[in-house]
Amino acid sequence: MHLAYPAVLAALLFSVGVYGVLARRNAVLVLMSVELMLNAVNLNLVAFDAWLRDALHAGQALTLFTITIAAAEIGLGLAIVLLVFRTRGTPDIDRLTALGDRVAERQNSADDSVDASKGQAVS
Amino acid sequence: MNTALPALVPALPALGAAALFATGRRAPRFARPLAILPVLISAVLALVTALQLGTGRTLDAATRLTPTGGPDISLAIHLDGYTSLITVLVGVVATCVQVYSTAYLRDDPRYASYAALVSLFTAAMFLVVYSGDLIVLLVGWEVMGICSYFLIGHHWETADARSASLKAFLVTKLGDVPFLFGLFLLGADAGTFRINGVLAAAADGRLAHPTLIALLLLGGVAGKSAQFPLHTWLPDAMAGPTPVSALIHAATMVAAGIYLVARLLPVFLLSGAALVVLAVMAAVTMIGSALCALAQDDIKRVLAYSTVGQLGYMAGALAVGDREAAVFHLVSHGAFKALLFLSAGVLIHAAHTNSLSAMSRMPWLAERVPDARWTLGIGLVALVGLPPFSGFFSKEAVFSAAEHATTRGEALTNGVGPAAGVPVAAGWIVLVAALLTALLTAAYATRLWLLAFPGRGAVAAAGTVVPRGEAAEGHAAALADTGEDLPVAASSTATAPSVHATEPAAMRWPLWVLALPTMVFGIAGLRPNWLPALLDGGSLRPSPATAVLGTGLALAGVLISYAAWRTVTARAARARAAEAAGAAAPQSTDAVDPGRALLGPLYGPAQHGFGVDRLYERLFVLPTLGAARLVRFLDREVVEGYVQASGGGARLLGWAVRRAQTGNAQTYLSALLAGVVLIAVFVAVGT
User: Fold this and answer.
1) Which of A65, B2, B206, B392 has most Cβ atoms within 10 angstroms of its Cβ?
2) Where residue A112 falls among pLDDT bands split at 50, 70, 90?
3) Contact, B230 vs B257, CB < 8 A?
4) Residue B483: helix, strand or coil by DSSP?
5) Helices B370-384 and B323-351 meet at what angle, rounded to 10?
């Protein structure tokens, strides 16, 4: 099998993962997209390992390593998401901006309050 | 004799000052004893030291104070006749002033600090006189300067006093800068700062730059002794309390410059050019200040200008190489000028004004201050230089010194240096200026007396209504007061017996203590084994030609001034009569000032010190202020602009970066990705 097929597949998977990470709002889906990217890398590792006929199979060993790390990481990530969901009541990543600059945040909240007052004025 | 005694003389007032500074606020009851006693004991010790030393002997003791790598600085004492004479003068005047101040500043809230500064000043003056080392002398010199600054600014609530103290400080410091360099050059040339070493080097001709040294030192002397062109601070210094004027700005501190030149006279004698400069300086100072004194209205300013002029006499005596005459005049002037200032203080205390024209409208003033009236008269006669008062003899010594110096090789240097070293020009300059000044001095002294105690006739002419019968008596008093038959006048006008209690005793008896030397000190110069034996041994007897000339000119000055006063008084009376008769003749109240009639067109400029102050303001003050404004502009607008801009730039950048910190992780990641892509593209394109 030609190297191009797994490579293209891995690139597509990675692109889907990047898109998911950058564009999805749900934290769980973002985590899943991260997994997609990791697996695209894994696919590449295995494919190149086979293509290069590595005697030590370093690619396969590294893939196993990555899978282990990914399992631990997704566990940790999901635990964090779960806690965030419990405290904030939302998994929406756009709203989790507590670490942002306070001026920017204040401007956001000012916008919010303007909106709120508008709403009050209407009601 | 041991050196503990003279060492105690400067130490005691200094300790007294320290104690006053420490306890003045908490224990004001001790302020007066602490002020008077150390100075009094010092005066007694100075007298004892002088008596122990005797005549014709010197005492030198030194201990090395600090090694410098160059010439050592040593704590040295040098005693001779000059130091004896001047320390006794300083001690007596300082004691009188401290006693007088207890009454004059009785209700002053800052009396303790005032007395402490006066004590400290006295200690510094003793140090200057006793010191045998130029650097230690400089310490005393500068301590006096700072004490003078604080004391002039004693009434710092008034803007006058503040600016006068600053002016005095800055002007004297302006002189002290060249003075310091002169001392360094002198020390470097002579290889030592000890005065004896310096004098030995001068005698051996080891000084490489005598003219330069002498001119640099003259800068400091002009500043301290208020000689032209640095004299402008002294008249303004009258913003200080009157006893301070008496002690510092008449009797002692301003004499320090003269004393220094007298000590270092052999150095000055090496340079004819410096002597001519000193002579010109003295001549300009004498004549200019006498003219100014003739036009002043403030009694203290009259006396201040008179001090400047008399210091000019001393400087003139030094310029013709006779330090005996200079110190003789220094001591007699110290006594009679302190007397004049203290008497003027009593007058001011009684009249509540400094203005002579205001005093001339107070007919009761003469009866209110009988002691001061007498002592002021005594002091003025001494100032004019009529025999047998001390001023006559000391001024006469200056005249004869100048007269001798007009012949080459005849100058009265008394073995201090080569008589041929005194230029003939210096002798002529000093002689002519001194004679002219004698005339002017007599004129302004008479004017001062006539304005302060015009007698009733003049007061009536000036517009105050008095009973008719008393006018003639006042007229007689004024006539008599101009000359020697002063007692007649005083006895005829001392009418009210109760007025004696009006001034406190502490303000009256110092006057008489000072009046005594004013009257009899001059006789000490008559016999060669009296005062001259204490000094260099030269003659201080008046020589007939100059004595007659000087006294004649002084009498002429008195008469001219009196005649002018009579004329203007009569004119004022006529104008008043005309006014009473209905004519529309506007009568100005100060029309009885004889100075205006005598000086004519010069009156206006003389009143303002011939515009020297204004000239200095144009030349130095305004450019300095302009430069200060420029520096302020550069600092505020240019330098601070850069500082502000860097701060603003950093803030702007920070603001821009903060805009990116939204807290949205996906935005960060997008930016990261975009960056990675960009780098990848650049790397790909680059390779």
Assistant:
1) B392
2) low
3) no
4) coil
5) 150
Mean pLDDT of all residues in B534-543: 71
At B357, the amino acid letter reads: S
| DSSP-assigned letters across all residues of B656-676 | HHHHH--S-HHHHHHHHHHHH
Helix (H) / strand (E) element for B544: namely helix B544-580
Does residue B263 contact residue B326 with C-beta atoms inside 8 Å? no
Closest to B347 in 3D by CA, of B325, B375, B326, B319: B375
Average pLDDT over residues B386-405: 81
Q: Where are the beta strands (DSSP E) in B239-310?
A: none
**Mean pLDDT across the stretch B1-29?**
81
Distance CA B191, CA B207 (A): 9
**Residues A86, A108: one domain?**
no
Cβ contacts of B396 within 8 Å, gap of 6 or more: B385, B542, B543, B546, B547, B550
| Mean pLDDT within B336-342 | 86
Are A36 and A69 members of one domain? yes
Total domain count, chain A? 2
Q: Do A99 and B666 touch (CB under 8 A)?
A: no
The token pair that represents A89 in the structure block: 């009541």
Q: So what's the pLDDT on residue B460? A: 47
Q: What is the mean pLDDT of residues B147-156?
A: 86
CA distance B390 to B422: 27
pLDDT the model gives residue B500: 43
Claim to verify: residue A55 and residue A29 sit in the same structural domain? yes
Whether A65 and A118 share a structural domain: no
Pair B179, B212: CB distance under 8 Å: no
Residue B573: pLDDT over 90: no
Q: Do B669 and A21 touch (CB under 8 A)?
A: yes
Q: Per the structure block, which two tokens stand in for A119?
A: 């709403």
Model-level pTM?
A: 0.73
Two tokens at B460?
């009536």
- Which residue range(s) make up the domain with A17? 4-91
Q: Which of B14-18, B119-123, B141-145, B418-422 has the lowest mean pLDDT?
A: B418-422
Cβ within 8 Å of residue B552, ≥6 positions away? none
CA distances to A12, B228, B277, B408, B439 from B425, rounded to whole Å, are 113, 19, 10, 10, 22
Cα radius of gyration rounded to whole Å, chain B? 31
H or E segment to which residue B181 belongs:
helix B159-190
> Which CATH number do you get for residue A31?
1.10.287.3510
Chain A interface includes B666 (CB < 8 A)? yes
CA distance A97 to chain B (A): 4
Judgement on whether residues A77 and A18 belong to the same structural domain of the protein: yes
Q: Could you tell me how many CB contacts below 8 A there are between chain A and chain B?
A: 37
Cβ-defined contact of B666 to A23 (cutoff 8 Å): yes
Q: How far is CA B677 from CA A18, B253, B579, B683, B686, in A?
A: 13, 86, 109, 10, 14
Report DSSP state, residue B252.
Answer: S
Same domain, A44 and A75: yes
SS3 A92: strand
> Measured between CB atoms, does B656 come within 8 Å of chain A?
no
CB of B125 closer than 8 Å to CB of B93: no
3-state secondary structure of B76: strand
Identity of residue B284: V
Q: Which residue has the higher pLDDT, B566 or A36?
A: A36
Among A72-81, B128-137, B229-238, B524-533, the least confident range: B524-533
Contact A93 B664 (CB under 8 A): yes
**The two structure tokens encoding residue A99:** 């670490």
Of A18, A97, A104, the CB nearest to B659: A104
Query: Residue B72 has which token pair?
Result: 């050592």
Shared domain check, A15 and A57: yes
Which runs of E-coded beta strand occur in B538-582?
none
